TrEMBL record:
Keywords attached to this entry: 4Fe-4S, ATP-binding, Chlorophyll biosynthesis, Chloroplast, Iron, Iron-sulfur, Metal-binding, Nucleotide-binding, Oxidoreductase, Plastid
Transmembrane segments: none
Protein name: Protochlorophyllide reductase ATP-binding subunit
Domain of life where this protein originates: Eukaryota
Residue ranges of coiled coil: none
GO BP term, example: chlorophyll biosynthetic process
Essential cofactor(s): [4Fe-4S] cluster
Primary gene name: chlL
Length: 174
């Protein structure tokens, strides 16, 4: 919804999904787009053989979509996949083609790989619900932002309470 709203306001938006369910990009494109990691495997990890149209797909309201992909559960590191996605998009100069880039990461894991997109961000907005687990993840992301802000021009822009009528835990956390 955020991507669509920004696109409708005239912004050029890229939404990067990072979930085995493809839930953020599927809802925008209507199909399971090939993942970055699958595309890289098909090209034997020759980044120079990957073109933007191989990994960037047009979604609803003109939102461009990328799906990072990932290993099966217990078979690898999702943070590695996020790092490879950032590396490829940097090679394709994608970070400079958009007004807004949204990276929909799994909030329950905030390792170095998952924090890699913060190296290219000016601001981080955390979207959470009122549950303890979601707020625990939000706290980990905020800690990552604080750490990255020592070496990058990055700031935490805020916290959005999503799909919740109760905000008592969110208010206490803030």
């Amino acid at each position: 919804n955020i991507s669509i709203a920004l696109a409708r306001r005239g912004k050029k938006v890229l939404q990067i999904g990072c979930d085995p369910k493809h839930d953020s990009t599927f809802t925008l494109t209507g199909f399971l787009i090939p993942t970055i990691i699958d595309t890289l495997q098909m090209k034997d990890y020759h980044y120079e053989d990957v073109w933007p149209e191989d990994v960037i797909y047009k979604g609803y309201s003109g939102v461009d979509c990328v799906e990072a992909g990932g290993p099966p559960a217990g078979a690898g590191c999702g943070g590695y996949v996020v790092g490879e996605t950032v590396k490829l998009l940097k090679e394709l100069n994608a970070f400079y083609e958009y007004d807004i880039i949204l990276f929909d990461v799994l909030g329950d894991v905030v390792c170095g790989g998952f924090a890699a997109p913060l190296n290219y961000a000016d601001y981080c907005i955390i979207i959470t619900d009122n549950g303890f687990d979601a707020l625990f993840a939000a706290n980990r992301i905020a800690a990552s932002v604080r750490e990255k802000s020592h070496t990058h021009p990055l700031r935490l822009a805020g916290l959005v309470g999503n799909r919740t009528s109760e905000r008592d835990l969110i208010n206490k956390y803030v």
